[in-house]
């Protein structure tokens, strides 16, 4: 058991003894509340003061029982306190409070339920992006591993199927939830709980067994991924289309810095809304290749033509160097950058 929990339990037992002792003296000896409480405190504390009043035979027996139990409980409290101090529990408690405060301050973050093999890889990718996230994990060994690694991930010990745990993780303000625990049953429960707490939340769930995908979608998951299905397909493609697989790995892997594939959202305030891909000058100014455009309706336009119009909430799927992609992302968010670029590239097109 956790030493802190030991200490809390022993304090609770001590308070119970104080209550029993006070009530006992009031009942047996007929003393006032203050006299009974005082006698109980000096008895449990074994300080050796004389009795407040002369004790009856029953009172003496009761006092001996209080001393016996009191010495044991106080010794237990001292031992628990020493264990907390020696094992650095105070620092851990203070650190936990700081983490909980940081979690409470999150907004528009992601909640990752489960820190297994898949969950740890997701955390690594999110941290590299970086994206704000918090991990919910109930396995004590996994929690100890996260503390030992010192990677700085925000985590919350607890069961993600419980409402209070997800509320502490900030589900009301979260942008999305990813459920990747090993049990499909738990993933369904987590999805149901999360959907009930936040109807607008994007939920991505892991499916391990055949048929679980339908259940997870019924429970409220927006998207379901089967790691085994994807892994098997990827291995087959590595034999059937090795060059294509190599290209995808280069474009989507974080370890390859020379070329990356990324998605960029066109915000509502962007000055490029209403322009075409040609008049926007995205390709000429940054050097990125626009592979596709996902419309707000969900329709995907692959290999868009130069006259394709840019609309609010469009998602550009681009391919290029990381610096070029970052430049394009800054341009679409910049309030005063669009007008000059549009004028320059309109003249060229004419």
Quick take:
The protein has 350 residues and is an alpha/beta fold.
Polypeptide structure, described:
By secondary structure, this protein is of the alpha/beta class. It contains 15 helices and ten strands. The protein has helices spanning 3-28, 33-44, 57-86, 89-104, 117-128, 140-149, 163-168, 184-197, 212-219, 227-240, 242-252, 277-280, 282-286, 322-333, 338-349; strands at 110-113, 133-137, 154-157, 176-179, 202-206, 223-225, 260-265, 289-294, 300-302, 315-320. The strands form two sheets. It has a six-stranded parallel sheet with strand order 3-2-1-4-5-6, sandwiched between helices. A four-stranded antiparallel sheet has the order 7-10-8-9.
Key descriptive features of the protein:
single chain, 350 residues, alpha/beta, 4-stranded antiparallel sheet, 15 helices
Round the Cα radius of gyration to an integer and report it: 32 Å
Which assembly state applies to the chains in this document? Answer: single chain
Helix/strand structural class:
alpha/beta
Number of strands: 10
Report how far apart the termini are: 76 Å
Quote the average pLDDT.
84
Unreliable stretches (pLDDT < 50, length at least 5) are none
Written as H for each helix and E for each strand, in order along the chain, the element string is HHHHEHEHEHEHEHEHHEHHEEEHH
Note the overall shape.
elongated
Portion of residues in helices? 40-55%
Individual helix count: 15
Strand content: 5-15%
Biggest sheet strand order reads 3-2-1-4-5-6
Biggest beta-sheet profile: 6 strands, parallel
């Amino acid at each position: 058991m956790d030493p802190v929990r030991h200490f809390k339990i022993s304090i609770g037992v001590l308070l119970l003894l104080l209550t029993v002792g006070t009530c006992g003296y009031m009942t047996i000896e007929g003393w006032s509340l203050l006299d009974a409480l005082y006698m109980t405190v000096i008895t449990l504390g074994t300080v050796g003061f004389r009795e407040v009043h002369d004790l009856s035979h029953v009172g003496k027996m009761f006092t001996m029982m209080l001393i016996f139990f009191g010495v044991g409980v106080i010794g237990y409290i001292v031992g628990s306190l020493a264990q907390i101090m020696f094992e650095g529990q105070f620092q851990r408690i203070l650190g936990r409070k700081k983490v909980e405060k940081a979690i409470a301050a999150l907004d528009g973050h992601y909640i990752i339920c489960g820190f297994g093999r898949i969950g740890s890889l997701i955390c690594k990718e999110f941290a590299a992006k970086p994206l704000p996230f918090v991990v919910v994990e109930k396995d004590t060994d996994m929690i100890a591993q996260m503390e030992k690694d010192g990677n700085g991930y925000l985590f919350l010990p607890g069961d993600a199927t419980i409402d209070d745990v997800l509320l502490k993780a900030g589900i009301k303000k979260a942008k999305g939830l990813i459920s990747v625990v090993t049990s499909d049953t738990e993933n369904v429960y987590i999805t149901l709980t999360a959907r009930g707490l936040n109807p607008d939340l994007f939920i991505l769930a892991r499916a391990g067994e055949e048929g679980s995908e339908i259940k997870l979608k019924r429970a409220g998951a927006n998207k379901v991924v089967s790691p085994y299905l994807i892994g098997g397909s990827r291995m087959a493609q590595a034999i059937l289309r090795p060059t294509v697989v190599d290209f995808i790995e280069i474009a989507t892997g974080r370890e390859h810095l020379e070329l990356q594939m990324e998605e960029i959202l066109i915000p509502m305030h962007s000055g490029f809304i209403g322009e075409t891909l040609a008049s926007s000058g995205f390709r000429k100014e940054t050097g990125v290749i626009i592979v596709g455009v996902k419309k707000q309706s969900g329709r995907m336009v692959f290999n868009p033509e130069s006259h394709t119009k840019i609309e609010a909430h469009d998602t550009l799927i681009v391919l290029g160097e990381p610096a070029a992609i970052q430049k394009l992302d800054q341009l679409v968010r910049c309030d005063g950058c669009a007008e000059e670029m549009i004028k320059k590239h309109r003249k060229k097109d004419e």
